Structure formats: structure tokens, C-alpha cells
Amino acid sequence: MDAVRNPAGEPPRQRDGGHRAQSSGTGLNFSQWRQRACILHSLRHLTAGMPVTRIAALLGYENPAAYTAAFKKLLGRPPTAHKPQLSS
């Protein structure tokens, strides 16, 4: 990727916004890596009982359905499967 020096004389930036094609040997680009990290981090919120709608907003998803779809794609189950179960 070509580096570009901006008019302010700052150091060169990558044309792709500074993100490398792959992140530290993970085989994922930055966007994929970030999404995975956010979904995995959300497990902590789920087990603490935080509502899915609040977690989706916290992570910047447009709506809870988008968060649920990304979560299910990565982990194979919806976020509600990871919420604490109420004992009877």
C-alpha cells in the first residue's frame, strides 16, 4: 500500500486509513478483528445481566438485531443463550 504524506507535514499514512490487511497473524482484517473482540467482550455484559438492547447500543450496532446476528454468526448461538438463567 502506498504511503501518503499529508499537507501538514505529518508522518505518512496508509491509504487504507492506517489499518493493515491482516492483524498480527490472525488472518482477519482490522474490522473483522474489532468486531470479534467486541462480541467476545460483550459476554461479560451478558453474564452480568445487561439487556441485549443496551449492549448493542454500547457496541455501536444500529439495532439489537444487527448485534444478535453478528453474535450468532461468531458463536453459533444468540446472545440470550449466554444470559444468566434464573433459578426457580
Q: Characterize the main sheet.
A: 2 strands, antiparallel
> How many angstroms separate the termini?
59 Å
The fraction of residues in strands falls at under 5%
- The secondary-structure element order is EEHHH
**Please, how many helices?**
3
> If classified by CATH, what would the architecture of the domain at 27-79 be?
Orthogonal Bundle
User: Would you report the number of β strands?
Assistant: 2
Q: What is the approximate shape? A: globular
Please list the strands of the largest sheet in the order they lie side by side.
1-2
Q: What is the CATH homologous superfamily assignment of the domain at 27-79?
A: Homeodomain-like
The percentage helix is 40-55%
Which radius of gyration do the C-alpha atoms yield? 18 Å
Helix vs. strand class: mainly alpha
* Low-pLDDT sequence parts: 1-6
CATH hierarchy class name of the domain at 27-79 = Mainly Alpha
What name is given to the CATH topology of the domain at 27-79? Arc Repressor Mutant, subunit A
Mean residue pLDDT: 80
Question: What is the topological layout?
Answer:
Blueprint: E1 3-4, E2 13-14, H1 30-47, H2 52-59, H3 64-75
Antiparallel strand pairs: 1-2
Helix pairs in contact: 2-3
Kindly describe this structure.
- InterPro entries: Homeodomain-like_sf, HTH_AraC.
- The protein contains 3 helices and 2 strands.
- It has 88 residues and is mainly α.
- The protein has a two-stranded antiparallel ribbon with strand order 1-2.
- Strand 1 and strand 2 form a beta hairpin.
Keyword list:
disordered N terminus, about 90 residues, Arc Repressor Mutant, subunit A, 3 helices, two-stranded antiparallel sheet, mainly alpha, globular
